[in-house]
Amino acid sequence: MDAQNPFAAFLVYRGMKSSLILAFFLLNILFASAQIQTIDSVTRQREIANLAYPMLYKENGELSYTSPLGELGAPSRYVINGKVTTNYMVLASKSLPLAFSINPDFTARVRDERSASVRTPSFRLGGTLYLRLSPNVERYRYAELSFTHHSNGQDGKAVLADGAINTIDGNFNTNYLTLSYRFGHFTTPISKMDYFGLHHKIGIQWHKWFAYEPALAGDYGFTRLNYDFSFRVYQNLAKGIEKEQWRFNSTISYAINSLTDYHFFSPKKRLNAEFSTNYSLPFMQNVFLMATFGYYGEDPYNIYFKDKYAYARFGISSTFTRYRTK
Fold first, then answer.
1. What's the pLDDT tens digit per position in 65-75?
2. Residue 244 in contact with residue 233, Cβ under 8 Å?
3. Is the C-alpha dihedral spanning 18, 21, 27, 29 positive or negative?
4. Residue-wise pLDDT tens digits, 74-94
5. Taking the complete model, does pTM exceed 0.70, yes or no?
6. Contact, 200 vs 184, CB < 8 A?
7. For the domain 54-325, what is the CATH superfamily, name and number?
8. Nearest to 218 by CA among 154, 163, 294, 145
9. 126 phi and psi, to 5 degrees?
């Protein structure tokens, strides 16, 4: 037919060519549309992660507590001890994998004496920069860099005339950086009921880049390796409503800098370790009953840094917890 009618064959050829060109353009449009949808999907996933991670940052913060009788086993006797700490999330944008918080921390020990005085309150104030390392919230990874000022608000001399540390009104101050890597994951619900969370923190803390009380030299853990582990049980109270029911925390910190009269393998002085069990009763929300056991080779309560002892602490604890409606 083509040989007998060249014009018809030409029209068929032109038609096929136009169809191929049209198909090519349609495929390109579809491919570009798919790329845009993929980009939008990835962007959306990142934005969701940027908004979800700050809640993880707050959930992983330290516990506040109130403890009648305080640290049982300490050299000093107390009426009640308390710690209040929180995170002010100053920066938490959906457009950035970075976040920033201000972290105040106030600890007080009311001494068992006639005036029931606090004597040397422990004050920490700092800021933390967070970097999200994964878009996955269920298996999260992020880094932290914190700067902290620690002092007691006293203005007396840190060392008495006989060389002893002045624990009445002696000055204590130090400043330090903490670099940490956090990771963890949440399990799938068991029989559509409870699920668990496993949370890890590995970090290093160092002080000597900044000002500190000279009396601390040679007798204070200026550089510490830290490891924290937290196992948490999340309860499904009703359809779509979750609550953190149990939190088991363990913390190990070891001073690795040079110390006068203590070699590197001297856990009696260098080791701080603590294990706590926290249970939230059914009528509680972000509050737990607390039982804590630990050992201080260096009491972190500022001017008492020379004290070494095993202790127990009982009371109530609180932090940001998972209590939400899906």
1. 999 999 999 99
2. yes
3. negative
4. 998 999 999 999 999 999 998
5. yes
6. yes
7. Phospholipase A1 (2.40.230.10)
8. 163
9. -160, -170
Secondary structure string (H, E, C) spanning the chain: CCCCCHHHHHHHHHHHHHHHHHHHHHHHHHHHHHHHHHHHHHHHHHHHHHHHHHHHHHHCCCCEEEEECCCECCCCCEEEEEEEECCEEEEECCCCCEEEEEEEEEEEEEECCCCCCCCCCEEEEEEEEEEECCCCCCEEEEEEEEEEEEECCCCECCECCCCCECCCCECCEEEEEEEEEEEEEECCCHHHCCEEEEEEEEEEEECCCCCECHHHCCCCCCEEEEEEEEEEEEEEEECCEEEEEEEEEEEEEEECCCECCECCCCHHHHEEEEEEEEECCCCCCCEEEEEEEEEECCCCCHHHCCCCEEEEEEEEEECCCCEEEC
Residue reference for tokens 């956090």:
182
Q: Which two structure tokens, joined as six digits, stand for 155? A: 């203005």
Instruction: Name which of 14-28, 58-72, 165-179, 226-240 the model is least confident about.
Output: 14-28
